[in-house]
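Form P-L/3: holo structure prediction, ligand adenosine-5'-triphosphate.
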Amino acid sequence: MTAAITCRGVCASRGGVEVLHDVDLEIGSGTWVSLVGPNGSGKTTLLHSLAGLVASTGRVDVAGVDPGRARRREIARAVALMPQRPIVPEGTSVRELIGLGRTPHIARFGSETRSDREVVDDVIERLDLEEFANRSASALSGGELQRVVLARALAQQPRVLLLDEPTSALDIGHQQQVLDLVDSMRQASELTVIAAMHDLTSAAQYGQRLVLLDRGRIVADGTPAEVLTAERLQDVYAANVEVLDRRDGPAVLPVRDPGPGER
Ligand SMILES: Nc1ncnc2c1ncn2[C@@H]1O[C@H](COP(=O)(O)OP(=O)(O)OP(=O)(O)O)[C@@H](O)[C@H]1O
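OUTPUT (holo model):
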């Protein structure tokens, strides 16, 4: 398996403070890695370093591109990022917003071709967005917008897809639809997926591998069953959980300590 992503000794700072320390990571092409860790542990910063949006030191290679040095267009042909907080230009329709994903593939001073339109139509159909296509993107609900922003990233036809909490605004049915769709695209076209996820059960169901960050460092990296132990989740998240061993991987259940009045 060829490596789609290599990080060696990667450090990154936000607001003048180093928040990602000495990250070493090698991810094979076509793999789904779920990136987990508490709030503020550095997941977004790592994804942004891979997308060339945050400066970092050390060595980063994403699908043969050094995101710290390459031109934006070259990076965008290799890597798509579905951001946690998308920016929607005022007055843009859903179709236009998804069409922006084709920009890195359109020749300079050129215009959208029939094949670009077909790619956009295809993702609109796969994500059931036909009824929204002509609506203003700024008038969508949070969950509808999240699916549109994923559609834009998929329309980019990247080799590496970076998802920053892709299902945080979705109901349980749309969560499954979106994650299944991304996984089927991964399998069909050797797409490499790194998804920052808070839902540890979903992270385990879809990720062949889990990488756990804590305070900017990788503290566990392995199969879901290796990474998700109740003891480790207590240590890293200060969470009281039970980990169930299920056919489709470990499931993490929060355990409520009854208050004194309920004991
Ligand atoms: N623009 C910024 N200026 C200063 N500090 C920042 C900035 N962006 C992020 N940070 C800090 O960097 C650290 C890592 O943040 P990051 O967003 O990467 O974490 P995360 O794991 O994605 O968190 P969450 O799960 O809450 O989304 C946090 O302490 C955060 O407060």
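COMMENT: The mean pLDDT is 93.
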